Amino acid sequence: MNKVLLSFALSFIGILSFAQIEGKWKTIDDETGKAKSIVEIWKKADGKYYGKISQLLIKPENANCVACKDDRKNKPLLGMEIIRGLKKDGGEFTGGTITDPKNGKSYKCTITREGDKLNVRGYMGISLIGRTQTWQKVD
User: E strands along 32-138, which residues?
Assistant: First the structure.
């Protein structure tokens, strides 16, 4: 009986952790295939998810977001909040935005998790018009 309960408990914890996006993730450039940075995602008291660049893995052309047009303009890339306001909706996280520091543009964002990978989709208008990056979990 104890083995059955333990097995059930471990399975339940595995399912719960599978749908979470909190933690550190290595961003992989969808054009070059190279790792660019580490993004840390967390949940704020408002129940929404946010993410910031916690480490740069390649030296950027400029250490600040010169192309950003909002409150992030000319702010350092390191520590910059690039994911804002995502809400959990079933198995995906949506309703927020993601900013590409390279071009300074913000896009609607949807994130889904598959094992130790996140599929991060940024798009304008409808989700069909956008691009997806696969980020890898950092231990």
Answer: 35-43, 49-56, 81-89, 92-100, 105-114, 117-123, 130-137
